[in-house]
Amino acid sequence: MNRSLAFVFCLLFASSAFAACGTTNASIGKTFTLSMASNATTGYGWKLASSPSPEVMMIGHKYIAPNSKLVGAGGKEIWQFKALKKGKKTLIFNYVRPWEKGKPPASVKSFCVIIK
Q: Domains in the chain, start-ordered, CATH in brackets?
């Protein structure tokens, strides 16, 4: 019974941590942005886990604080890339605290970029 319960827990964790890939279209030579909810007050932030080259190049990254007076309210992170080469590229982001080495990410997001 305990092994079955552990197996079910692992399946639930894996399915929630690794969400389906969101599709983004881009044109060669153009920039595109990816936006993700984030809360800097918790110490967590999105980290690009996959290498963007050679199809795309990261241009910039910034955190936008919430337009709220609530303490601890979350904002969003904006990632900007430039499409360099025709093809498909999956960009994977991990939601982590940078000082916590060796811990699994609290969340993982994937974006499937189609460059035409």
A: 21-115 (2.60.40.2020)
